[in-house]
Design goal:
single chain; 346 residues; mainly alpha; MetI-like fold; 15 helices; 70% helix; globular; disordered N terminus; MetI-like_sf; MetI-like; transmembrane helix; cell membrane; Inner membrane ABC transporter permease protein YcjO
Length: 346
């Protein structure tokens, strides 16, 4: 009887082992964490997640039309000698075909060999670094203050976010009136204190200071809101434990606040850098790149080549645009690589 029972148990165990081994040899193998491995092939992915692809398809199509096609067209024009004299155009009932030709990398050679490009690049980098660093420091300071409980905090938040709600070109025109040398409010206030008028937009140095100040004023709300959200996500228990251990305010800020904001800070710095590098409205509407060309950055120079220069150089403008894109892509790749070395993978 005992022998029969032992044989039955052994037989059942053998059947279970066979089933388990057969299941292991099946198409859905288990991974180390117990989850089944995903099926291979694009067809299986489309069949499994067809609804997700259907939802994403309209967005991909729109982005391809409004971003992809202009980008490809711009790269192509940068390899030609297209200008307003040889592109296709219609005059009355007469249609003139395009006569521009493919010139390869000649435009890139000409732009990179032009001292103007390097002058614009140096000022663009200085302008970007100054704006982003000042905006980040002021935004962090304001976010730290608004993260505390005090009377009227909601009103202060609304007042500090207000520049973000106003359209950028409206804000720039308002600042242009404030900076007016003869009738501007700033010079009126200085005149009341016995200080001579400051040529805010008429002197190259003051003009650079003015455009940086306006761009910082426009960028602080975004930086403050993003960093404030990051501050509110840091557990309060960390500050309580550090305070009980005798950590001073600066030590708590250095060892808790800054590490807790690392992910948010890296993201907002990257976005702010890209936006500032291409901040066309502030420069063009405030100073028109002047006085002279002292505040001209790369993107305003590209605009000038296409719409202000005579004849309008579409190929040259496209070349400037492609170089701007290449510089930002290189910066983003280097930035991402540095984050991965620090353990911040995104």
């Amino acid at each position: 009887m005992a022998a029969d029972t032992s044989q039955s148990v052994a037989k059942a165990a053998g059947e279970d082992a066979g089933k388990n081994s057969g299941a292991a040899r099946g198409p859905r193998r288990a991974t180390a964490n117990g989850n089944p491995r995903p099926g291979r092939g694009l067809g299986r992915a489309l069949a499994t997640h067809w609804y997700a692809w259907a939802m994403v398809a309209p967005v991909v199509l729109v982005l391809g039309v409004i971003i992809g096609w202009p980008l490809v067209r711009g790269v192509y024009l940068s390899l030609t000698d297209a200008n307003e004299r040889n592109v296709s155009r219609t005059i009355g009932v007469r249609h003139i075909e395009a006569t521009y030709e493919f010139v390869g990398l000649d435009n890139y050679t000409a732009v990179l060999g032009d001292p103007v490009f390097w002058q614009r690049l140096v000022w663009t980098v200085l302008w970007t670094v100054a704006c982003v660093s000042i905006t980040f420091v002021l935004g962090l300071a304001l976010a730290t203050m608004l993260n505390r409980q005090f009377r009227g905090r909601a009103a202060y938040r609304m007042a500090l976010i207000l520049p973000w709600a106003v359209p950028g070109f409206v804000s720039v025109f308002a600042w242009r009136f404030l900076f007016n040398r003869d009738n501007g409010i700033l010079n009126k206030v200085l005149d009341g204190g016995g200080i001579s008028a400051v040529p805010w937009l008429d002197d190259p140095t003051w003009a650079k200071f003015s455009v940086i100040a306006v761009n910082v004023w426009l960028g602080i709300p975004f930086m403050m809101v993003a960093l404030l959200g990051g501050l509110q996500s840091i557990p309060g228990e960390l500050y309580e434990a550090a305070e009980m251990d005798g950590a001073r305010p600066w030590q708590r800020f250095r060892h808790i606040t800054l590490p807790g904001l690392r992910a948010v800070s890296m993201t907002v710095i990257l976005l702010s850098t890209i936006w500032t590098f291409n901040m066309f409205p502030v420069i063009f509407l405030l100073t028109r790149g002047g006085p002279g060309d002292s505040t001209e950055i790369l993107v305003t120079q590209a605009f000038r080549e296409a719409f202000i220069a005579s004849p309008r150089d579409f190929a040259g403008s496209a070349t400037w645009g492609v170089l701007i894109l290449a510089l930002l892509m290189i910066f983003a790749l280097v930035y991402r690589r540095s984050l991965r070395k620090q353990g911040e993978v995104w």
